[in-house]
Amino acid sequence: MAIIIRLDVMLAKRKMSMTELSERVGVTMANLSILKNGKAKAVRFSTLEAICEVLDCQPGDILEYEKEESL
């Protein structure tokens, strides 16, 4: 996957647990885990906005594009 999710990095920087983020954002732990593990096919802008608000960060602090190597 070319989009890398850095949610765990921001959580560590903010000293926040997934449980606390889940409660404050209003997203289930299961959905946050899917996002954190890079298994999500999409993320709503409203969810991304809420995560950024709670973590006091920019979307680019959480999402990173990495060009895939072609064989």
Key words describing this protein structure:
HTH-type transcriptional regulator; globular; 2 strands; DNA binding; 434 Repressor (Amino-terminal Domain); two-stranded antiparallel ribbon; Cro/C1-type_HTH; 71 residues; mainly alpha; Lambda_DNA-bd_dom_sf
What does this structure look like?
There is one protein chain. This protein has helices spanning 7-13, 18-25, 29-36, 45-55, 59-62, and strands at residues 3-5, 63-65. It is mainly α and 71 residues long. The chain has one domain (3-65): 434 Repressor (Amino-terminal Domain) (Orthogonal Bundle), CATH 1.10.260.40. It has a two-stranded antiparallel ribbon with strand order 1-2. The longest helix is centred in the C-terminal third of the chain and has 11 residues, at 45-55. The model has no long low-confidence stretch (mean pLDDT 93).
Number of domains: 1
> SS-based structural class?
mainly alpha
Report the sheet-strand fraction: 5-15%
Q: What does the largest sheet look like? A: 2 strands, antiparallel
Shape-level CATH architecture: Orthogonal Bundle
| Highest CATH level, the class | Mainly Alpha
Spans of at least 5 consecutive residues with low confidence: none
Q: What is the number of E strands?
A: 2
Series of secondary-structure elements, N-terminal to C-terminal: EHHHHHE
Which whole number gives the mean pLDDT? 93
Q: Enumerate the strands of the largest sheet in spatial order, edge to edge or round the barrel.
A: 1-2
**CATH-derived topology:** 434 Repressor (Amino-terminal Domain)
Task: Give the N-terminus to C-terminus distance in angstroms.
Answer: 15 Å
Structural Rg: 12 Å
Number of helices: 5
The CATH homologous superfamily corresponds to: lambda repressor-like DNA-binding domains
The shape is globular
Helix content: 40-55%
Organism: Shouchella lehensis G1
InterPro entries: Cro/C1-type_HTH (IPR001387), Lambda_DNA-bd_dom_sf (IPR010982)
GO molecular function, one term: DNA binding
Protein name: HTH-type transcriptional regulator
